[in-house]
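Same chain as my last thread, 545 residues:
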Amino acid sequence: MSVSESRLYWTQKIKSNSRVLDPLGIFYHLKIQTDYVPAITSVTRRMRYYTLQAWFFKNMTENDNPHKLERLFILSTLFHHDGNPSHNSISHIFNKQYFEKDWNERNSFPLNSDFKISGFGRTYYVRQLERLRCAWHDGLKPHTTMINDDLASTLTLENHHLNQDQISKSDLAQYSKLCICDSETNEDEIEVFSKILFGFLNLESPESIEDNIPDKYLDGTMDLVFSGIDDFPDDSIHQELTQRRRNTLFMFMKIIDQGNPSKNEWKETVMNVIYYKQNPLTKNKINFGKLEKIRQYWEVHQYLIYFVFTMESILDILQKQLRKNVNGIELKNFMDCFQRDKFQDSFNVITNSRINQKSFLSDLISILDSKIDTNHASMESPIHEYSLMTSLKHTSSSEEKMCIILVMICLLRQRLDHLPQEILKNYSQSEFKDIDDEINVNNFMTFFDESKSSTLFDFSQKLIEKISRKHLFESSRRYRFGTKNWIFTEEEGLLYPSGRKLVRINERNNRWNPIYNLLLDTKMIQNESNVTLTEKGKTWMQMIE
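reply #2:
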């Protein structure tokens, strides 16, 4: 094994064809959700994992095995809840189902490799400690800060069992404070992590936590300024990233406070308030004040979420039609698979207007313009992007799905000119500068403008061909690096299904759930019948209002 190979530290081997990610190669549109909540990823959903890794950095040597600590954490959590991996208090813990079948029969549990874990509890969180300025590796040597030590000190944990290969069920009793639900009552952990998460670090000594929070800023004078561009000086990078995350967290809390969402609809409320600046229930406008700048970034992100989901929904039509026609479909006549009468009827239902098979794309645009009073859709419009995305998720008819897609594209084109253009420009550029991506949002909308004289049926055929070409190109590009990414293949003008399992198409909004969970853990919000700010959350909001 080469030196470079030995540094990979794989936790498990994954077959190259095990799953399909970004089948159109357009996820570069969604970088805002990685750039504006640094230290929070799609899978870092619990405060206790951050604390656990901080404790390991402070107390263990580089020769100690972090997987043993993670195994002890999993076992302690399960023991505290009678071996039930489905208990509400222990959500989002990796590998907790391992002993589900024989928990009651066991008297002891392995702490070595006999207990096979993914290691994701460390892998996913340890990189984020660096982004929070807690701890990182300087070369091969671990570096910890006062911030890290403050967080680690909130966790009382004996470590003598970490040198053993197994632990008895009776010994697990002494580790009840390690259970993830302990963080609900560990006020020191909540206080310290709240300050770290919101970036309240002492600027005179950047490796310590700022004192007197939130009292110091209750007059509303807290700094929310961030650059929002990528060429800021290196010496201010941590302050910039902290401000982006801080702004996003306060924006989320502002939406919860103003939107008053139900427990089951908070995510929809967040998306709609950001995009439409309206309370979904009352339709009243919401003023974001100091948080308007960060809202604009997330508005562009939500727009691009709609765009990516729409493009992938066309791909979904392709894969499902091909699964019904395993002998192949001629690409240039793909739309012949559709029932034209059903296609026409779907348009009439969706738009509540008469559209026939000879109607042009320009006719659909005119119909939608007549139904939307303002220059783009709002929550009060009879048709808007969120309602269309919801319909796309639930319909099984290819004809209806294609009609919804065409209406969605029209609304997205309508909205395009009213977005913050500089933000859109920065976040719609492919990392491959030498490739002119025809599914890039700007290129695609130019194609849309040039196609207004096409019939709806012909335009749909063009969409199918465009999406097909991009998927085949992206799959060929990935294959050069040993990844099998094909959903379908092409031979002599015919498309064939690849034989893999159905690839699920979902919206790619993956930061709101982690933010929601971390704000619950830090007691900024609470979820009873509705999601609301706690008294602590209301007090913290006073720092910016």
